[in-house]
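Researcher: Final request for today, and then I'll write up notes for the group meeting. The sequence and the SMILES for manganese (II) ion follow.
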Amino acid sequence: MSTRPLSFLAADRPYEAAEVVILGVPLERTVSYRGGPAQAPAAIRLASDSVESYSALFQADLSEIGVCDLGDLDPHASLSDVLHSVEREVGRIVRAGKAPVVLGGEHTITLGAVRGAQAAVGKLQLLALDAHSDLRDEYEGARVCHATVLRRCQEVVEGLIIVGARSFYGGEVDEPVFARVEELAERLDPALPVWLSLDLDALDPALCPGVTNPEPGGFSYHQVIGIFKALRPFRVVGMDLVELAPPYDPSGVSAVTAAKLVIEAICALWAPARKRA
Ligand SMILES: [Mn+2]
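Model: Predicted protein-manganese (II) ion complex:
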């Protein structure tokens, strides 16, 4: 009998042979409403065991795409050190020609991820799915936190597009970063690699209630799938999925939704070209 650490579904490749690399970052440092993201990577891995590895939507099987699960980064260092670790790991993975899939943790980790990805590819555009604009310059005295993360990312990347936003503080509503799903393909720059940041609160909380800051009126599951489809012509270098709060997910459906979206995204974006529908 052998034992193995909890890993994401079908992620059985060694790092060297992998095309997609899963990395957990159970960071929970600047949460403002209710907690839980520290438990998210483990909850997503556990939930991934309940779903099939085959994507009927994208006609690909996760087990045929080389996926490695590196486990979790230590989230207990200073915030700046954790973000530097994320930056270093994501940079290393992208430079090796692999696609990182970062499982948060709070949304703040995206800042480390886009720094690492941008350093690896030169220029980068960020597509964020988020109920909140996350564009404050400062929040409760902090310049780097979940409520300012997309502003800090905007200072790093070449371009930022946010879809799904429906909660604003007021000062940012006229900024040109917001897009409707239907115009996504024309708003993204076809010449620039893309980082995809999926804040689970972009989904409707009726479908995905286990998030830190639920906001009514969000995307359906299939609208998110539609965004993955729209991204297929672009060079997506990596993604993160953040803000799952397992304590507020009593049925477990939010963790399953997160796991399923990770599988669909990997199959949509990184399945070998010959299998692409
Ligand atoms: Mn967010």
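Model: The chain has one domain: 15-275. Residues 107, 130, 132, 134, 146, 199, 243 surround manganese (II) ion (CB under 6 Å).
Researcher: Thanks, that's everything.
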